[in-house]
Each structure stands twice: as C-alpha cells, then as structure tokens.
C-alpha cells in the first residue's frame, strides 16, 4: 500500500520533488546495505568470540555501533526529506491560493472601475422612484381614493360624457298614430 501511495504521489510531483524523492530512495538503499552489513558483522563478532578473539570482536562491535548510529542519522535525513517534500507541496498549494486571490482582487477592481458608487446610488434612486410611482398607480387602481376624489372623478367623467354626446334635435310635432 505504501508503494501505491508513493506512485500516486509521484504522479503529482514537480522536478524539484523528484530530485528530493530520488535522494530519499538513495538513502533507503544505503539504509538497507547498512542493515545487512550490521547483521553480518554481528554474526562475525559471535564467531570471533567463539574463536577466542575477543579484541577483534570488540573492534567489530564498535564498528557495528558506529554503523547503527549512521543508520539512525540516515533515518532522520529521510524524515527531513519527506517533510521537505510535504512543505514544497503545501507551499505550491499556498501559491495557487494566493494566485487565485490575486486574480479575484484584479477582477473586483475592474468591476469597481466600471461601476462607481455614484452610478450605483443613481440606479438605486431611480429604482426607488419607479417603485414609488408603481405603488401610487397600484393605490389608484385599487380604489384607495377618498370620497372627494371619487366625486371629482365622477364629475370629470360626466363632463367628458356630455362633451362627446351631441344628441340630435327632437321633433316637436306629435308622432303619427299607427296605421293598421
């Protein structure tokens, strides 16, 4: 499963990340060589003790101890390299976020240049005027007029009706009776 993670991770890495990961892989190979050498030296030290060569066994165990310390240092270096790769990846993410913020800020600035505060206030004022005018029309149509308004409207309607109606003259003679 670890190898799958490394393969997936490597597919997203940059050249710099690849270089760091190659160094890590080299350190791991070095670690394996040291581990195998430590096992051989321990077995050799046992053999030397059996053969009665205590000083040589002691010297070999000192060398083994030194190599174990190298192995610990190598593990620390590998941890540092992996941490560095993670830091690089996180920094790249931060840079993308920063670039997104920069683009967004530029876009907002352009929008602000197109639309000034005075223009917005003018549009809002015109909208409020239009809404008020429509409200007045709605009130008129809804019958929210006072009785005086209703009387004035009826008088005006009668005056207009009288102007439009011109009646023909009515004869003054009586009408003839019906013929059977």
From TrEMBL:
One of its GO terms (cellular component) is multivesicular body. The keyword Protein transport applies. Residues 64-91 form a coiled coil. GO terms for biological process: late endosome to vacuole transport via multivesicular body sorting pathway; protein transport; vesicle budding from membrane. It is found in: Endosome membrane. Keywords: Coiled coil, Endosome, Membrane, Protein transport, Transport. Its main location: membrane. Belongs to the SNF7 family. This is CHMP6 protein. It comes from Sapayoa aenigma. The lineage of its organism: Eukaryota, Metazoa, Chordata, Craniata, Vertebrata.
């Amino acid at each position: 499963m670890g190898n799958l993670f490394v393969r997936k991770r490597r597919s997203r890495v940059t050249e710099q990340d690849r270089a760091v990961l190659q160094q890590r892989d080299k350190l791991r190979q070095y670690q394996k060589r040291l581990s195998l050498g430590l096992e051989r030296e321990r077995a050799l030290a046992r053999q030397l003790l059996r053969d009665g060569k205590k000083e040589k066994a002691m010297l070999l165990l000192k060398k083994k101890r030194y190599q174990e310390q190298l192995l610990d240092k190598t593990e620390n270096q590998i941890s540092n390299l992996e941490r560095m790769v993670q830091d690089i990846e996180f920094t790249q993410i931060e840079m993308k976020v920063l670039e997104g913020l920069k683009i967004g800020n530029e876009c907002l600035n352009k929008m602000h240049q197109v639309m000034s505060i005075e223009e917005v206030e003018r549009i809002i004022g015109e909208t409020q005027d239009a809404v008020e005018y429509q409200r007045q029309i709605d009130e008129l149509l809804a019958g929210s007029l006072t009785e005086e308004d209703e009387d004035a409207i009826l008088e005006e309607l009668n005056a207009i009706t009288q102007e439009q109606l011109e009646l023909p003259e009515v004869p003054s003679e009586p009408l003839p009776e019906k013929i059977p």
